[in-house]
Predict the 3D structure of the following.
Amino acid sequence: MIPSVLPTYSRAPLSFVKGEGSWLIEADGRRFLDMAGGIAVNVLGHAHPALVAALTQQAGQLWHTSNLYEIPQQKALADRLVEATFADTVFFTNSGTEACELAIKMARKYWFEKDQPERLKIIAFEGSFHGRSAAGIAAAGSEKMTRGFGPLVPGFVHLPFGDMEALADALDDSIAAVMLEPVQGEGGIRPLPDADLKAIRAACDEVGALLILDEIQCGMGRTGKLFAHEWAGITPDIMLVAKGIGGGFPLGALLATENAAAGMTAGTHGSTYGGNPLACAVGNVVMEVVATDDFLADVRRKAGTLRQKLEGLVASHPDVFEQVRGSGLMLGLKCVAPNMDVINAGYAAQVLTVPAADNVVRLLPALNITDDEMAEAVARLDTAATEITKGLK
């Protein structure tokens, strides 16, 4: 008999009832150190006082009016994002998936308005993840996500990750846009080198293609810059943002230049809930905290500390771990042992992590995690790895 909740998740046997900073408390009272962060969502941890205050205050005033009317909190957040980024305009969504859908529409509408409706192909890369919608899975293209869901949305060209020669061969004046994650998350914490990002930007400019960056997981301070592409000194035409922007409240956004967004006029897109007062009240406070030089500098410092500790962990357990990779506080442990063995052993040691492709365990902690909590997390991972090693003997 099918359960009342559609069984599309392989859930861990844990039920959390409370969160405090970087800690989650199970119904039975156990305290787990959260290095998963709701999959890079809880950038300020659980129950951050400023976020709780913003949400509570807004909840007592106004929840929803729809986008038929002006929403002051939405305008304030859009202004903040425009001021802090390359973008001229912002559309708010409830999720990253919705932002991806709009990006695909926007890129194709851009060329339609230029009297080139046949220019609709979008290049994407192996290992990418752009959400679970029909267009999102077609963009990613993997059999795991697309099998059984055909016919797929057409118009996507899939290239090997990091293959710049393949990109040069494929990128011509039939291509509407190139879409990629500066750091692949689900694909196994794979950063694209800065030199490659610069080359992709230049190649897009050469043929007039739009560059769409998916910073849903790697954005909002995760790499130590507000957005990961800043490390390469480039800017996209369109960018997808979600996860961390709401600090745990459902919120996403598409950011774009005026040029890229020119075709999106009244009636071409919409959202009932997107940019509602509750979400934007929280998003404004997240930006107030995260989008500051001091906060981001501290993320970079913590990232160096955590990476050093993880390198030591890998060296201590060569039968369990192979390498550390990633950027900022978006780190991956490439495993020798099955990654789910590491994650399950972590549950026993009361530390939470996230699986990814390529046999990787992801660490996506709150950006305000303390040094002591990072040290404790690595100690618990050491305990987990020790138990796995015992089982191998």
